[in-house]
Amino acid sequence: MNQSQPKYLNLFEIRLPVPALVSILHRVSGLALFLFLPYLLWLLQASLASPESFERYRAVLAHPIAKLTLIALLWAFLHHLLAGLRFLALDLHWGTGLPAARTSSRLVLIGAVVLTLVVGLWLW
Q1: How far apart are CA 71 and CA 43, in angstroms?
Q2: What is the mean pLDDT of each run of 10 residues along the chain (124 residues)?
Q3: With the CA atoms of 80, 86, 92 and 98 taken in that order, what torsion angle do they form, in degrees rounded to the nearest 10?
Q4: Domain boundaries, the chain
Q5: Which fold has domain 18-123?
Q6: Distance from C-alpha of 113 to C-alpha of 124, rounded to nearest angstrom
């Protein structure tokens, strides 16, 4: 038996490289968008039924928890978009070196947060 293998692997103590974190968050953001898309489409359809329903859903979305949920979905969309563009560039063999991959990963993380703050504050 190989003694160098750990018997217990604590996943919370593992420090992931930045490109791996971007990849995992890309999958999580895609899942969040996929799961919330039917609800958002229903909300849009219901709000367009009449002026009264539009005002009712507008009041619901004025609640801070609803706004935070929409901001989280905005981050998911922007992160998924930027990470998808990064992965497209990697598929075209642009930035496949380790320093370039780390830099593009950091740019995706920072860019998604900055764009979310800018657009979120503008929409709030």
Answers
A1: 16
A2: 69 88 97 96 93 94 93 97 98 96 98 97 87
A3: -140
A4: 18-123
A5: 3 helical TM bundles of succinate and fumarate reductases (1.20.1300)
A6: 16
